From TrEMBL:
Name this polypeptide is given: Methylamine utilization protein
Organism field: Thauera mechernichensis
Domain of life, per lineage: Bacteria
InterPro entries xrefs: Cupredoxin (IPR008972), MauL (IPR034242)
């Protein structure tokens, strides 16, 4: 069961841009890293920015483990190892394959459909990474302290969408909870072990 709790929402002075700071904890109150999050307006369609990201392969692992991107973003997959990798995904949100290679493939992979993408290496089974694609320009991933700050958010009503790797193997659907932004807001999100 997913639980969410709204903390104190404090208006900021008019001169400051609106923002949302999310603190994510597990069901025991411990900070939870690698939660992909996005703010999706309840009314209107936000302008999506074209963005490019990078997921590096180093020491036979993907860095970072979790990446959150807006729909339409492209991701490069440079291989900094001395061995070849074969990056792939069979996820409905993005199916792709980068066959055995060293260096950086010429073209990035474009993530044009929202959803959870689970990736692996066909040669090294222990390698795994996640990309969550959101229909929103306000995206990010919680840090080691379980925090994420989304800035430049217009005042209004939103759905805070989120996903965490502890849910892999479930239906991989993104969860959500309503949030109101009016000045700088703070929000505490409790993410349980099951979606």
């Amino acid at each position: 069961m997913i639980l969410a709790a709204i903390g104190c929402i404090v208006p900021a002075p008019a001169a400051l841009a609106d923002s949302l700071t999310v603190r994510v904890v597990d069901e025991h109150g411990a900070a939870l890293q690698d939660v992909a999050m996005a703010l999706k307006p309840l009314v209107g369609v936000p302008a999506m920015r074209v963005a490019e990201f990078e997921i590096v392969q180093r020491d036979k692992r993907f860095i970072p483990l979790m990446t959150a991107v807006p729909t339409g973003a492209s991701i490069r997959f440079p291989n900094h190892d001395t061995v070849r990798h074969h990056v792939y995904s069979f996820s409905p949100a993005k199916t792709f394959e980068l066959k055995l290679y060293l260096g950086t493939p010429a073209a990035p992979v474009v993530f044009d459909k929202p959803g959870v993408v689970v990736m692996g290496c066909n040669i090294h089974d222990h390698m795994v990474a996640y990309v969550v694609v959101f229909d929103s320009p306000w995206v990010g991933v919680s840090d080691e302290a379980g925090e994420l700050r989304l800035q430049g958010v217009p005042a209004g009503d939103y759905r805070l969408e989120y996903w965490h790797p502890r849910w892999v193997g479930a239906d991989n659907s993104v969860a959500g909870t309503p949030v109101r932004i009016d000045g700088d807001a703070r929000f505490t999100l409790v993410v349980g072990a099951q979606p």
